[in-house]
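Protocol step 4 of 6.
Sequence for Phosphate ABC transporter substrate-binding protein (Pseudoalteromonas fenneropenaei) entered exactly as in the expression construct, tag removed. Do not edit the line below.
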Amino acid sequence: MLKHSLSILALLTALLSASAQAGVAVIVHPSNDSALDVAAINRIFTGKEKAFTNGNKVIPIGQEATSPATDEFNEKVLNKTAAQLKAYWSKLVFTGKGTPPKEVSNDAEVIKLVAANPDTIGYVSSSAVDGSVKVIQEF
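Step 5 output, structure tokens:
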């Protein structure tokens, strides 16, 4: 009986962990056919890459630091904490070498902006994705 209870407990813990880590999707306009790997997405969101592979200027859209999608994106794609990113962008802005991605407050705003402009790229919670955008990577 104890073994059975422990198995159920382990299963419930795994399910809860999976729902807490819902995933983050990197999205572009459906007409964008650029191929982007994790390294390219990292370069775009750190200001090191200025164009898509199709040559169009890239406009990255982020979310506020308090967004769960931002935490997950920063950790899984940028490999940085919010504090590290703030310091990184402060230095670039101060030296005139960069501007951080535009920030909006939630998934719906990112989807709206990306769906309206083929030159944008953003990230949202995987569960928020709809047919108006195309997922190019999921983490």
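Step 6, annotate. Residues 5-19 have pLDDT under 50 and may be disordered.
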